[in-house]
Amino acid sequence: MAKPRILLNLFHPTFAHSRGGKALAEAARQLPNLTFRNVCQEYPDLKIDVKQEQKLLLEHDLIVFQHPVRWYSGPALLKEWLDQVLQCGFAYPPGVGDKMNGKYWLTVVTTGGPQDAYCSGGSNNFTISELLRPFQQTATFCGMTWLPPFVVHSVLPVTMGGVSDEELARRAEEYRALLDSVTVG
């Protein structure tokens, strides 16, 4: 078993103002085997360099998609990135586009609301797992191994009911440790 080459693709349109996203990204960036990319900063015009993105995918084993939950999904650029980069003949169909086979997909999300809001009968009606199913199916269809998502709830400012700075720091360290513990091969 070996340490994976990790590609962390951050999709956060308001990263400069992000409490949770920043804490997680700063913790993850400490890893020597990690390539960090702020995709929203790379492509503010939504014009994705598909060949560059595919090259990066080929060079890494674990692909991390870090983003806030926005309207029960990911930010618009994430959807555009998936549509453009995971092309037919590259990422699918099985047996033809097999460049992603054997790679690992980890979704890392933050929410403004508390964990109990994400359940049947909660204010959001669905679990995070249910909301992330399209991403899980994308990973599966591309021949990737879907890893259990890493979720940090209540990242709003403390004055708005968010977790304490200490709790957020603890969760960020859990994230870094999780990335550091993944092995491949």
| Number of alpha- plus pi-helical segments | 7
Q: Write down the overall geometry.
A: globular
Which value, in Å, is the CA radius of gyration?
16 Å
Number of strands: 6
Helix share bin: 25-40%
The arrangement of helices and strands along the chain is EHEHHEHEHHEEH
Query: Distance between the terminal alpha carbons, to the nearest Å?
Result: 5 Å
Main structural class: alpha/beta
Mean of pLDDT? 96
* Sheet of most strands: 6 strands, parallel
Low-confidence stretches: none
Q: What percentage of amino acids are in beta strands?
A: 15-25%
Question: What do you see in this structure?
Answer:
- With 185 residues, the protein is an alpha/beta fold.
- The chain is 34% helix and 16% strand.
- The protein has helices spanning 19-28, 39-42, 50-58, 76-85, 128-131, 133-141, 165-181, and strands at residues 6-10, 34-38, 62-68, 104-110, 145-146, 150-152.
- Strands 1, 2, 3, 4, 5 and 6 form a six-stranded parallel beta sheet that branches.
- Helix 1 (19-28) runs parallel beside helix 7.
- The model has no long low-confidence stretch (mean pLDDT 96).
Helix-strand blueprint:
Layout: E1 6-10, H1 19-28, E2 34-38, H2 39-42, H3 50-58, E3 62-68, H4 76-85, E4 104-110, H5 128-131, H6 133-141, E5 145-146, E6 150-152, H7 165-181
Parallel strand pairs: 1-2, 1-3, 3-4, 4-5, 4-6
